[in-house]
Design goal:
The complex is a heterodimer of chains A (330) and B (475).
Chain A: E1 2-7, H1 13-18, H2 26-32, E2 36-39, H3 49-59, E3 65-71, E4 74-75, E5 86-87, E6 92-93, H4 94-101, E7 105-111, H5 113-117, E8 130-131, E9 135-136, E10 139-140, E11 157-159, H6 166-177, H7 193-196, H8 207-211, E12 278-279, E13 282-283, H9 292-304, H10 308-314
Parallel strand pairs in A: 1-2, 1-3, 3-7, 7-11
Antiparallel strand pairs in A: 4-8, 5-6, 9-10, 12-13
Chain B: E1 4-8, E2 19-25, E3 28-35, H1 42-45, H2 53-57, H3 66-81, H4 87-113, H5 128-135, H6 141-153, H7 155-161, E4 170-171, E5 174-175, H8 181-202, H9 207-211, H10 216-220, H11 225-237, E6 249-251, E7 254-257, E8 260-263, E9 266-269, E10 272-274, E11 281-284, E12 290-291, E13 303-304, E14 318-321, E15 327-328, H12 330-337, H13 340-345, H14 350-373, E16 391-399, E17 402-411, E18 414-421, H15 423-427, H16 439-444, H17 457-465, H18 470-474
Parallel strand pairs in B: 6-15
Antiparallel strand pairs in B: 1-2, 2-3, 4-5, 6-9, 7-8, 9-10, 11-14, 12-13, 16-17, 17-18
Helix pairs in contact in B: 3-4, 4-6, 4-14, 6-8, 8-11, 8-14, 12-14
Classes of the chains: A alpha/beta (330), B alpha+beta (475).
Chain lengths: 330, 475
């Protein structure tokens, strides 16, 4: 299958992350899966007139387009013209190009939360009036209508994330190449379930602190970051702590909170990113699918039962008290 | 076409969106205008937010200079609060930052710059076959090796920064994770593997030997590794003369530590070094689709001209220092730091900029190894900084592509003003009110254009020699 990759209003970080793929590297992986780039802004030789000619041939239907990958949100401003991002050399906005090319593709893939939902590009007052391909924040319908379906029949596939994990992108593309990704394999926001069926909480190394509500109070302490430091890993989809980033990492492994970058509107938490909003001392963002009263009851019980090891380590920057398992009965 | 006008775009293998307008005369570029055609408005997004939000949002300006943005934001907030990070935290932030900068240099050389020499226009050159084998886009041997080596080096970021890009690990008070002794040896192992790759593949010899080169002639005699292939091409095509600069350089200084910087800050003009002084800095808006007066970034604002008036041609503002455009980047850093090879190359063109990056790649390995060896697994890596209520600050860092500054003003615990001037804002600025072109615009004048070329290869070499980052440029 061939891929045309366009960078819209974003940072290019999802491409940079993709190039961190390992075992095998992204070049070998795509080649082995029978995927090839018609053009990629960071990787292809073709520039200028060569690219314009290719785009024209796709637009005329002379080149059948299998997968259109769009990275970055789509700028609609100023005043609906899309001129905050012109596709250079073409005299036309990226908004215009995407609306023309998307219906010609068999599959359309939004790479990253900007392309999916608007993401960081739409933060604050949304200066460029940016939107995602098929969503504007949580609302269905972006620069493409909610009912839009390219030839393959799937909605725009939202590989959310800021950035995307390289494997989320490569595995989605490989599944498409094998015709093995169906509508049932996407969640309600059209995110592939293979990563969206997990929570960032799953496999978080701070889980034991979470169990006892042994909380960090500063960014450098080892405890759970949910109570004070804005972590929403219990509500965020992603397998970030199951398959690591860049060898062994994740946000919580790096000592900073999950900000749910796979979710629409994560860029506007309505409080500081690294601070948990509270009402009467109780965090407002509790796990989404747990009754609040039960959570509070369990939390107060577990807080009362917190081992000294955890309460000390939670506010330390390194393990101060090591586990002391009981000696086996002999 | 050797007379008339050309519009070059989409301009790829640069980060972000770039369009170059050329007026041609007598088979060469007579005049160039550089357009940064993407505006997102990060400075406006930040208004009214808690100051610490800058640490989450500004890295997302750019997926390739993400840590540079992060480090600049952390430093600006620390400055606004009069706070100093824990010394070991600052050193770890420098190491994390160096890994990103080195990765960017590596990718620029292998993925962005070198593939142009595989073009059929060079099929008759003696080095063409080797260039095709090593640097064919996506499949060349050098490209595969560089992608693998970079991914492995970035394990240091997985370990210490959680992930790359877009980490929150760097804070005004230090870094969010304190390494243990095993982390330290793991980091050193990753660096040793990276040294082996650089010496085996990129340089074909000890890094210290390359870093010891002190003249242009000695440089052109280096015939080993992929660097040697580039130097053979550079000599054959006389890339030193192509796209020469004005020899005015700016560096904010890279990797600060208690004793100064690993690469010193300063200004280079008229063949001499001067101390860094930004009092005379302004961002000129005369040819940018921006409204308002020319201002120092501490007093600047970002008001896009939605009418995109006809006498402007870019969303990029035009920073000037004491009235002059300045070139920034690895070459500038190495010239200002006083390296003899860089000093010998000062004012040069494509060769000088690319060689400056290779020189820095070789020298940065030792910087990273020193930082890693200096990790104290018993020390604090964070001295938490309280959120600033009122104040103003500046954060100056060196991104891979050069001088990056953040200027912040905080009132009543909220961001009242945030201005960013990125390296490519300097390098690819449009004209100013005096009609002075930006550094790239000036460097393109005289570039040869062959009959029939619509995307002149000489223009591509010159543009890419700057390693532009267009997403940072306008932000």
């Amino acid at each position: 299958m061939n891929i045309l990759w366009l960078q819209a209003s974003g940072c290019g970080g999802c491409t940079m992350s993709l190039l961190c793929a390992e075992d095998p590297n992204v070049i070998d992986l795509l080649e082995g899966a029978g995927l090839r780039f018609l053009w990629h802004p960071a990787l292809s030789l073709e520039t200028g007139g060569e690219v314009r000619a290719l785009l024209d041939r796709i637009a005329m239907g002379e080149v059948a387009l299998d997968i259109l990958c769009v990275e970055g949100a789509i700028a609609r401003g100023p005043r609906g013209t899309g001129r905050f991002q012109m596709l250079s050399g073409t005299g036309r906005s990226v908004l215009d190009w995407v609306r023309q090319l998307a219906p010609l593709a068999r599959h359309v893939v939004a790479v990253g939360s900007c392309a999916a939902f608007g993401g960081v590009t739409s933060a604050g007052e949304n200066p460029s009036d940016a939107a995602g391909l098929q969503y504007e924040g949580t609302h269905r319908g972006g620069v493409l209508p909610a009912a839009f379906r390219p030839g393959g029949g799937l909605p725009v596939i939202n590989i959310a994330g800021c950035p995307t994990h390289p494997d989320w992108v490569t595995e989605t593309l490989m599944l498409l190449a094998q015709d093995a990704l169906g509508a049932d394999d996407l969640d309600a926001l059209a995110r592939p379930l293979f990563f969206a069926q997990h929570l960032v909480h799953h496999g978080c190394p701070k889980n034991e602190f979470y169990e006892y509500k042994a909380s960090a109070t500063q960014l450098c302490e080892m405890g759970c970051m949910m109570e004070h430091l804005g972590c929403v890993g219990t509500q965020a989809v992603g397998d970030c702590n199951i398959r690591p980033w860049n060898g062994s990492g994740s946000c919580t492994r790096g000592g900073y909170p999950c900000i749910s970058c796979t979710a629409p509107e994560f860029e506007e938490p309505k409080h500081a990113f690294t601070e948990t909003p509270k009402v009467a001392g109780i965090p407002v963002g509790l796990p989404s699918d747990m009754p609040k009263a039960w959570f509070m009851a369990l939390a107060s019980l577990s807080k009362a039962a917190t081992p000294e090891r955890l309460s000390k380590n939670a506010v330390a920057d390194r393990v101060e008290v090591v586990p002391s398992p009981r000696k086996p009965n002999g | 076409m050797t007379q008339g006008r050309l519009i070059v775009g989409p301009f790829n293998r640069v980060e972000g969106d770039l369009e170059v307008h050329l007026d041609l005369a007598d088979g060469a570029v007579a005049r160039a205008r550089v357009n940064a055609p993407l505006y997102r408005g990060f400075e406006r997004m930040l208004m009214g937010r808690p100051p610490s939000d800058a640490l989450t949002l500004t890295p997302r300006i750019c997926g390739i200079c993400s840590i540079s943005q992060s480090a600049a934001a952390a430093r600006a907030l620390a400055d606004a609060g009069g706070h100093a990070p824990a010394p070991q935290g600052a050193a770890m932030a420098a190491l994390i930052h160096a890994v990103e900068n080195v990765s960017d240099h590596l990718f620029h050389f292998n993925l962005f710059f070198m593939p142009d020499f595989t073009r059929p226009v060079y099929a008759d050159r003696p080095w063409h076959g080797q260039a095709v084998e090593r640097f064919t886009a996506q499949t060349g041997g050098a490209q595969r090796a560089a992608i693998g080596a970079r991914a492995a080096l970035m394990h240091i970021l997985g370990l210490m920064a959680g992930k790359w890009p877009h980490t929150l690990a760097i804070q005004p008070g230090g870094v969010t994770r304190a390494p243990g002794a095993s982390d330290k040896v793991r980091i050193l192992a990753s660096l040793t593997a990276f040294r082996r790759y650089l010496e085996g593949t990129v340089f074909g010899g000890p890094l210290e030997d390359f870093a010891a080169l002190s003249t242009r002639d000695a440089l052109l005699g280096w015939d080993r590794g992929d660097a040697g292939l580039f130097l053979r091409i550079a000599a054959d095509l006389d890339l030193d003369r192509l796209g020469r600069g004005a020899g005015r350089y700016l560096s904010f200084g890279a990797y600060p530590d208690a004793g100064g910087h690993a690469f010193a800050p300063g200004i280079w003009r008229d063949g001499a070094r001067a101390p860094l002084d930004l009092a005379d800095m302004v961002e000129d808006l005369s040819h940018a689709w921006m409204l308002g007066p020319a201002s120092h970034p501490a007093d600047g604002q970002t008001l896009p001209d939605e009418d995109m008036r006809a006498d402007a041609y870019s969303w990029c503002k035009a920073p000037r220092l004491a009235g002059a455009p300045m070139e920034t980047g690895a070459l500038a850093r190495q010239v200002i730091d006083g390296h003899p090879l860089a000093r010998d190359l000062a004012g040069g063109g494509v060769l000088a900029r690319v060689a400056g990056r290779l020189l820095e790649l070789a020298r940065s390995q030792a910087v990273m190894e020193d930082l890693a060896r200096g990790i104290d697994p018993a020390a604090p890596f964070m001295d938490p900084a309280p959120e600033v209520q009122d104040g103003h600050g500046v954060g100056l860092v060196e991104a891979a592509r050069g001088a990056l500054g953040h200027w912040v003003r905080i009132e009543k615990g909220r961001i009242a003003s945030y201005q960013i001037v990125a390296p490519t804002t300097w390098n690819f600025s449009p004209r100013d009110a005096q009609g002075q072109p930006g550094p790239l615009e000036a460097a393109l004048v005289g570039a040869p254009v062959q009959p029939g070329e619509t995307t002149p290869v000489s223009v591509q070499h010159i543009v890419r020699s700057f390693d532009p980052c267009m997403v940072c440029t306008v932000h």
